[in-house]
Amino acid sequence: MPNTKLRRLVATSVAVVLGATALAACGSSGGSDDDNAADSGPVSLTYWSWTPGMDKVADLWNKGPGKDEQITVTVKKQASGDTLVTKILTAHKAKKAPDLVQAEYQALPTLVSNDALADIADEVDGVKDKFAEGVWQQTTLGSDAVYAIPQDSGPMMFYYREDLFKQYELEVPKTWEEFAETARALKKKSPETDLTTFSANDSGQFAGLAQQAGAKWWTTEGEQWKVGIDDAATQKVADFWGGLVKEGAIDNQPMYTPAWNKALNTGKQIAWVSAVWAPGTLTTAAPDTEGKWAMAPLPQWSAGENVTGSWGGSSTAVTTDSKNKSAAAKFASWLNTDPAALTALAKEGGIYPAATTAQTSDAFAEPPAFFSNQPDFYTQASEIAKTTAPSAWGPNVNVAYTTFKDAFGKAAKDKSDFGAALTKMQDDTVADMKKQGFEVAE
Amino acid sequence: MTSARRKSYGVKGAPYAFLLPATTLFALFFALPIGYAIWLSLHKVQVKGLGLGSGARSEVWAGLENYTDALTDSELLDGALRVLGYGAIVVPVMLGLALLFALMLDTERVRLAPFTRLAIFLPYAIPGVVAALLWGFLYLPDVSPFYFVLDKLGLPQPDLLDGGGLYAALSNIAVWGGTGFNMIVIYTSLQAIPAEVHEAAKLDGATPLQIALRIKIPMVAPSLVLTFFFSIIATLQVFSEPTTLKPLTNSISTTWSPLMKVYQDAFQNGDIYSAAATAVIIAFVTLLLSFGFLRAANSRTKQQGEAR
């Protein structure tokens, strides 16, 4: 008998505890679901970024404007590029993505298509004018929505060894035709030396070069995607580089290898088609050549033109999982348009800001240390940045980029037809989109 | 009566209680993930229209579509063939060397045995990625001291990062890293052979070579089977060496080995469904090969036992 009593007591108390937990759960979920309530009180946001020193820039916010607005931002350092995209998508699947994320421009459609990024058009009214048209358009995906705020950009440029160009009596090429002539002339004078290499291990470079030629890889027509990876402009670029590799005018080995570093450092390769961030890479890859390089605009497809592509660059986006979207958007606008924030970003993170006014700010009065011989480095850079051609990204850039690495890597190795590699890139990309169920126009 | 029944009940329950931790861990960290992978492999993502905005993406039942796609994908088959080619070099060379070293260490007139044993074993302690990076530097003509010496001597310089050379280069890393471990396994079982067996053979006039071939090798056959079994599994799962060497050359594609394809699909192309299907196929093939081999080995040992 006493046993029964005890059992009943236990059962009752368990029920009470469970009930209390359920009530507490109801209470807490009710509170956090209410957006307005959360926005008015103190808010803390999490930001995934790979930019070095971003925590210091966030501290500026937390001690300054963020303090007044009661918005605290915590930076969590992440791996860059594709790795982070995968991580964001995984977190989003569990509805646990951070409030703010850093994303490369070409990753935005993928993220939007997975419903991971929030439309912040209403919160960032008037920010648009601070950026070059071609840069801003990448964050809207051609719609009225705004999915991110541009942070840094990577206008492409031509880097060359000034001393060796003099030594080999070479002119800085103004057109791609002259570029090919320069490569051949160099081979004649010094067969062991290459002007540059065609590398298949960074798809961004090829995408930027195609963009300069006027390629539009992904466009939309009504409710259909149109994939133009093998359009005339890209074919022209592929044939050009394929031709140079085939005749042996340039090298065909990948970049960023110990061998490549050595070739740059010892003057075995004397030029590099790169972007505004190249000084940083050259500092570590070719430390002995400090002060010997110079930067010039990218060669053009026809004389007198003035267009460049972009390679790299990223933006700040607010996720759909964020419970404080407007607070997050406020921070994102401050981070990428406020002069103090941009100066700190340039100093701490070494980035080249997308905001046009920042490109000529005090932070960029001096050239990078590696280019001390070119005092107007950043003045020229900001002029070049204005000529960036618009780009057109689609929802499976990752697949196109992977196919590029494999198909062009093989073509470069075999010195075979780059056109065929480009066709494979187009076919694989379209096939992947169709497999996922996207409507693709033929 | 009552107490006796209670006692027997307690004894009956005990095995289950003892099994519980293992079963729980097995279910949570083995069966459940495998089940989830199989579930994923039977689904796919379906996008509507442009696929932008919310609700444009849904997970739908795909049936065996991912499996048929994977099995008809020539890239996966090519990858499997590449790995077979690689395994055909690695397994015999590595086990041959391991056996040879073990037998040499086991002879009576060996000097510095502990040191040699350690020296051969040491590469096994170096992580695969570090080993691949290290060898990668040595394979690149522009930075490798080997090529420098070959160049100075006017000897031909083979391209180790292309064509057949690439297989040799990759196998070399695996052999360098794996021989020591296998040698220790074989050596340990050599040490377990009773001394009177060789002594008897020696008294009968057997040479050391004959002792090795007729006595030692047959007696360590079980450990040879074991090391062979481990080596096959390791070969089928080759991933870190080609992945580490990939940035150094155009010859290694992102889908060079089947596991690299799984990684590529899941983490670069964001298609975990296809990746799950490919992973299940690889697991199945590995299982089939390993058990097939074990059965064959077992039936052989049984036959021998009966013949004796």
TrEMBL record, chain A:
Keywords: Signal
Key word Disulfide bond present: no
Gene source species: Streptomyces flaveus
UniProt signal peptide: 1-24
Record-given protein name: Sugar ABC transporter substrate-binding protein
Keyword hit for Signal: yes
From TrEMBL, chain B:
Membrane topology, from the record: Multi-pass membrane protein
Keywords: Cell membrane, Membrane, Transmembrane, Transmembrane helix, Transport
GO cellular component, one term: plasma membrane
Coiled-coil annotated residue ranges, if any: none
Pfam family, one: BPD_transp_1
One Gene Ontology term from the biological process aspect of the record: transmembrane transport
Family annotation (PROSITE patterns): ABC_TM1 (PS50928)
Protein family: Belongs to the binding-protein-dependent transport system permease family.
Protein's name according to its UniProt entry: ABC transporter permease
Native source organism of the sequence: Streptomyces flaveus
